From TrEMBL, chains A, B:
Protein name: Adenylyl-sulfate kinase
Taxonomic lineage of the native organism: Eukaryota, Viridiplantae, Streptophyta, Embryophyta, Tracheophyta
Any Pfam family: APS_kinase
UniProt-annotated stretches for the region Disordered: 1-32
Gene Ontology biological process terms in this record: cysteine biosynthetic process; hydrogen sulfide biosynthetic process; sulfate assimilation
A GO term for molecular function: adenylylsulfate kinase activity
Enzyme class: transferase
Function: Catalyzes the synthesis of activated sulfate.
Segments crossing the lipid bilayer: none
EC numbers: 2.7.1.25
Organism for this UniProt entry: Trema orientale
């Protein structure tokens, strides 16, 4: 007997209080599964009778809340969220007939061939006024002129939308970075050169985002501009306010910025007006070229 | 005097407990601003001395937690998260010199021209086993063969990543859909034909996602397959379990599915084996062609 149970929920709740979406599985509470518990995703690869004899807990699946089944109910693929994948379809597309579909959806490699580039995340980190956004913009322009598709994730298009529910308390700040990392991963999977431009002052948060991507696909760009220079620029007067004690917890003033030690690219301040965002962006372009990201 | 203050936070907290990211502004608590409160984004367009005489509350900005300034501190652009935008840069790209940058980053129209398509969200809704994923996969294949970039958002790539923190309680189910809608919006903005495949049983949640997109860019595809047919298919045995009372709150059985009344596309079940996902996907392709989404 395999008991599959989760949080008990009353059936037939009102639509507004009991939404029925829920594709997928319970997020794992730790990196290692608990003995006696198997995540639904693990069941996805079980295509023959389950040999597992312990207790299996599936918290929910697409359109459901609570599941309790006996072992015999799960003698085939128990994955609820993978409908249609790996199925073989014989049908016609335009003039082509009897096309066999081994892989259902288009994969990353195919998208990359279409775009003639390789999806990745270019993560620009640095102090306020270090020039992150300017480099991100210059980079997107240069890439566009070369026929490459990039997309910038920044505060404007994320904090106002996806992350509008997040406050600025500690855990929400970490969650903000986590979500940007996850979305950036999706864009990279789509084949896009995704440019994330965030202060992201803590190494732990940046490294967590790096860990989401395949090796080499997370390109950390450190804006290595001395605090003094950023403070002299101070285009918004924020450093002045921080020094005056009117902004608390300002990165670089009374909250730490943990400079990357092994970032893929370091853009250093050379002083003077010649330090254009475009020149800095060209350094990133050279890296992307060298590593083969600008071709499929 | 303009008092700009937010949640008070101790400066110099430990990195693990006081993350310093936070680009952007406090998410608005309602659609209409409270009298006497101005969001930071509103200040972004204020380039001359503020004439506002009331109290301004900025909850946080990039790299900060608490701000308190007097009115005179904000006599220029108070936007913290928009560095580099709309600035005029005279510099060189490759052999081109003195390029003037009116708009900093590449916009949606430019990306669409590059991709020769228009970004949109194709939102496939329907009962479990109604064929959503199969149509999504077929659609992505057909689009790919025509040289168009699409990306599927489904349970696998969202619940395992971005939404892994969400449980299956009511508010988290709604949040799951909200986030998918927001991410889909970003993909559409990137110029991608974004295919979201979710049961999404409640009209309110679907309409909230629709409202995120410009008119016409949210294309609701209703898999109009009778419950009886889905239940007969029952590829995962979920309906059987639901009928046996072993799954509670299963959409269509003991939780409602609110069928769309005005969806852009209705894919109806015609019966028999001829109802291929490819034929259904071709209906969506026809719509996309007719509406001009497959060209820039």
């Amino acid at each position: 007997m395999i008991a599959i149970g989760g949080r008990s929920a009353l059936a037939g709740g009102t639509p507004s209080s009991s939404r029925g979406l829920g594709i997928g599985i319970e997020p794992p509470s730790s990196s290692s599964p608990k003995p006696g518990f198997v995540a639904l995703s693990d069941l996805g690869s079980v295509n023959s009778r389950l040999s597992f004899k312990g207790s299996i807990r599936i918290k929910a699946m697409e359109g459901s809340r609570t599941v309790t089944v006996s072992e015999t109910d799960l003698n085939t693929n128990g994955h609820a969220g993978n409908l249609g994948k790996s199925q073989s379809l014989l049908s016609s597309i335009g003039n082509s007939t009897n096309i066999q579909w081994h892989e259902c959806s288009v994969n990353k490699v195919e998208r990359q061939k279409l775009l003639k580039q390789k999806g990745c995340v270019i993560w620009i980190t640095g102090l306020s006024a270090s020039g992150k956004s300017s480099v991100a913009c210059a980079l997107s322009q240069i890439l566009h002129r070369r026929g490459k598709l990039s997309y910038i994730l920044d505060g404007d298009n994320v904090r106002h939308g996806l992350n509008r529910d997040l406050s600025f308390k500690a855990e929400d700040r970490a969650e903000n970075i986590r979500r940007v990392g996850e979305v950036a991963k999706l864009f990279a999977d789509a084949g896009v050169l995704c440019i994330a431009s965030l202060i992201s002052p803590y190494k732990r948060d940046r490294d967590a985002c790096r860990a989401l991507l395949p090796d080499g696909d997370f390109i950390e760009v450190f804006m290595d501009v001395p605090l003094q220079v950023c403070e002299e620029r101070d285009p918004k007067g924020l450093y002045k306010l921080a020094r005056a004690g009117k902004i608390k917890g300002f990165t670089g003033i009374d909250d730490p910025y943990e400079a990357p030690l092994n970032s893929e690219i370091v853009l250093t301040h050379k002083g003077g007006d010649c330090d254009s965002p475009i020149e800095m962006a060209e350094e990133v372009i050279s890296y992307l070229e060298e590593k083969g990201f600008l071709q499929a």
